[in-house]
Amino acid sequence: MALVLVVDDEESVCEFLTEVLEDAGYRVQTAQDGPRALELISQNPPDAVLLDIRMPELDGMQVMDRIQQQDNRLPVILMTAFGTTEMAIQAMKAGAFDYIIKPFNLDELVLTVKKAVTMRQLAMEVEALREGRTPEPLSMETMIGQSPAMQAVYKNIGRVAASNVTVLIQGESGTGKELVARAIHNNSSRRDGPFIKINCAAIPENLMESELFGHEKGAFTGAGARKPGKFELAHRGTIFLDEIGELSLATQAKLLRVLQEKEFERVGGTEIIRVDVRILAATNKDLEHCVQEGTFREDLYFRLKVVTIWLPPLRERMEDVPVLARAFLQKYSREQNKIVTDFSPEAMALLMQYDWPGNVRELRNICEQAVVMTRGPVILPEDLPHSLRFPQHELKENIIKPGMTLKEIVADVERRVILKALQEHNWNRTATARALGLNRRSLYAKMKEHGLLS
């Protein structure tokens, strides 16, 4: 029977997790501080560690660092009540197997422990990404979101940042693919090097090769002097190729050579230029479909997607809309030198019922417009654009009822969404939970909360 060590300075948490994990079939040891945890590990190494981050004397990050010095193959699952972007990326960079957020989703907790124990018992090749000497990550204030989908993105950034692998970032327009690329660069060993961005859709095809690889004087009409390309400028740094699906097949072939050989020639030149560059790419296209159509090289596609990070559209993480909207409100209030403190419940309800085809970019633009248009300290429905106030696909019933609080409005929207999903899946709870990104227990709890149990 696998042994799990639970480390938390709150005795009640240790008792609760002991009960949960023993019910799941594990032996459990507990410790209420870091030194005791390290002592237990040295005496009887467990198969996995559940470790709280906020503890007196030694915090969780310090304890994890010492655990890795003792046994860098022991999986550590961090527990935190503060699921910030910085914490997520820092935890994964420092070598955590995973992290979970309080209050616990018990299904997620047990599944995470199971994965960690399996990895330990099968002796899979898992090592810490970083040790405690790693510099602190840069501020990630521009990446906002506490939804499970965004937490997964933060974890993936933390996992890939320390390496030099090529990363393909996929997602709809406006989801923040450049922010992910910058986060990877800023948390890598190349952070002090250049970050060079190229929008492949914005450069004419006849200029793309020169833009990427540079040209010699006289290489073509108008080339009056030698010009270094973006790859040269990105030496010892990162190059971000946005909208890479727009590259021509000819340019794709030249890019493939750079990926394979780390070398190229300038347009009109013969000198071999060698560079040390990490390539990050992004697209809103289905590149696999483009490969099948013959518009994108298969060998380049597989070279680019060593690791793929998928960014969810905003409509699939609606719980992030209020925090995003309020962050943009603060930003544009400062820029416009206006005192705008919040959204009215009615205005927030309009934001919550919109499907956001333009994703976070559209939300940001609407918030900026609202700050400019409002005449008071609170954003009202009339400060929002017509498309939000009179959507083409309005709900059959008016969700705004006199006297409703914001909490009641959001709960009403949640009930409608769950009810619609249940109807679409013939009240199959498993299929409905999967469609909504929930587990069955969470769906059952929400159905009970909203009076949807028959």
From TrEMBL:
Main location (coarse class): cytoplasm
PROSITE patterns on file: RESPONSE_REGULATORY, SIGMA54_INTERACT_1, SIGMA54_INTERACT_3, SIGMA54_INTERACT_4
Domain Response regulatory, first and last residues per copy: 3-117
Membrane-spanning intervals of the chain: none
Keyword tags: Activator, ATP-binding, Cytoplasm, DNA-binding, Nitrogen fixation, Nucleotide-binding, Phosphoprotein, Repressor, Transcription, Transcription regulation, Two-component regulatory system
Residues annotated with 4-aspartylphosphate modification: 52
Compartments where located: Cytoplasm
A Pfam family recorded for this sequence: Sigma54_activat
Superkingdom assignment: Bacteria
Ranges where the Sigma-54 factor interaction domain occurs: 143-372
Function description: May play the central regulatory role in sporulation. It may be an element of the effector pathway responsible for the activation of sporulation genes in response to nutritional stress. Spo0A may act in concert with spo0H (a sigma factor) to control the expression of some genes that are critical to the sporulation process.
The name this protein goes by in its record: DNA-binding transcriptional regulator NtrC
Organism of origin: Desulfofundulus luciae
